[in-house]
Amino acid sequence: MPKLFIFAVGGTGARVLRSLTMLLASGVRIPNCDQVVPVLIDPDTQNGDVTRTVALLKRYARIHEALYSDGQKEKEGFFSQPMNTLAHLNTGGSEELRDSFVYDFGGISQPFRDYLKYNDLSVESQGLVDLLFTQDSLAANLDVGFRGSPNVGSVVLNAVVQSKEMRYLAQSLQDGDRAFFISSIFGGTGAAGFPLLVKNLRDGNSQLAHPEVRRRMKAGALVMLPYFKLQEPSVDEKAAGQDFIDSNTFITKTKTALSYYADNLQGLESMYYLGDQPGQPLANHPGRPSSATRRTYWSCWAPWRCRTSWKCQTTSSTPASRSTTSLA
């Protein structure tokens, strides 16, 4: 039973996954794939885009179960594509997972400084931390995500690698399974989480189960380039110390990420880049429910663009093909 694991990282990943769910509800099937297993990864559990997507995934799963609970393998029809959480996979392991489409970060709610246990570090280590991170980054509360700071995200998201969710996923892998990653590369969560997930899923020296299956597994990715901009905070808001994200840095962050990927990112058979010219600036909300971004054309079109990577069939290994598309 080939499975497709979709890692939707950050708010952008959630938006694309939401559009994919709507396509599947309309009767679209992923060829040669018996089960879709979405995994949403975002420490900002109150992110408006994430909560909307989770609600939609739960509704889809309930409707699919109601329509096809007799076990018939329908080839076409509304809601015919099976979709389940990681917890529904029978791995034979002893670890139990929370039945959720969202990776459990364990309720991270402290500032990044406390997460690093900064006050317990030696003077030399504190000096290194001060060199690598700004005081604003150290003071930022992690329950709203990484606010466009991939250097912060890469530290926190390292915990995902040896989590029980990843061990559970690796234990369930079989030949023919595939993985697909969706994220932006100009923010914090996606830019940090995407390369870490790819690297560690492929790493044959990690403690995860089935290293040979992980090495042979086909994988692809959709990487979102900047597609929106945010309003500049007023002078009064800046003076009040209000949190905001500087969208003027998006292009610089994108160039840095692309440069890193060119030299260090391996293990993908297909990789798609998708971007758009920003329209009117959106309200500047770093996290929580108000962070939802309005739906745009690309979020509906992106799943169609990547369907060729979602065919769950075993093929010969080839270097990653890369496709760049602008909707401008």
UniProtKB/TrEMBL annotation:
The record, for InterPro entries, names:
Tubulin/FtsZ_GTPase_sf
Q: Which domain of life is it from?
A: Bacteria
Q: Which SUPFAM superfamilies match?
A: Tubulin nucleotide-binding domain-like
Q: What is this protein called?
A: Tubulin/FtsZ GTPase domain-containing protein
